Amino acid sequence: MQIYKGNLLYFLISIVVLSLIAIYFHISWRFSQVDAGICPAEGRILSGDELRKRMLKDFVRIHVDFTDIYYRILRSGSWRVGISPDLSRVDVKRLIRESYGNEKSFEENFSIDVIAPSEVVVTYKESLIIDFPKKHFSLVFFTDDKSGLARFISTKSVYEIENDDDYKKRYKISLFDGCRGFGKNFYSLKSLIIHKDCCDNKFYRQTIREYMKNKREAYRDTVEEFDRGVAFHSQVVAVSNCGNVMTEKVENGLNLDFVKWM
Question: Where does the chain have alpha helices with state H?
Answer without folding.
Answer: 2-35, 48-74, 89-101, 106-109, 126-131, 165-170, 175-179, 208-228
